[in-house]
Amino acid sequence: MNAGDSYHAGPWAGVFPLPEPVPSVAMPPRALRRLLGHYPTGVAIVCTRDGQGQPVGLTINSFVPVSLQPPLVLWNLALHAQSLATFQRAPQFAISVLGADQAALARRFADAQVRHRFDGVVLEGDDDALSPPRIAGAVAQLVCTRHAQWPVGDHLLLAGRVIAVHEQGGAPLLFHRGRFQAGPAELLSEMRP
Hints:
Layout: H1 29-36, E1 41-42, E2 44-49, E3 55-60, E4 64-68, E5 71-78, H2 84-89, E6 92-97, H3 103-110, E7 123-124, E8 134-135, E9 140-152, E10 155-167, E11 173-176, E12 179-182
Antiparallel strand pairs: 1-11, 2-3, 2-6, 4-5, 5-10, 6-9, 7-8, 9-10, 11-12
């Protein structure tokens, strides 16, 4: 190790040296987004409550499970998002994995111009100032406590520890090549060693 080497911060500080910086691909953001659209994703709505107990939520397709023990999930939020400060401070959030018949809700919660996203939306969960609301009819719901946050590029990564789950099942909503579509409805059998 050289004295001038840079190392990752956090629990791995001093263990892994940072790679040498290399130029990014010369591609306009819109073209990169189209390219990345080849990878199909699930669609979810993540919700929390603001300091006054009002529900706040948005559509995501960046949801990733990262650990089984402890149970941790990860999602990301653009640094320019209006709800950034709310999610940074929220002690809990809920991720509702949408069903194939919930594309209209996905569009509604993705549209920054919709001011009252929760009007007429059926919610589940405790109606208190701490419990995050969950979207009724979702195929799965995960309630999480804030575990960690990291700014990465133009987004904030938010990790949550799963403290409660609810599963309804059914066909999930998928997003692929700029379009919503239904995922498979079959039950998946768990692989056993």
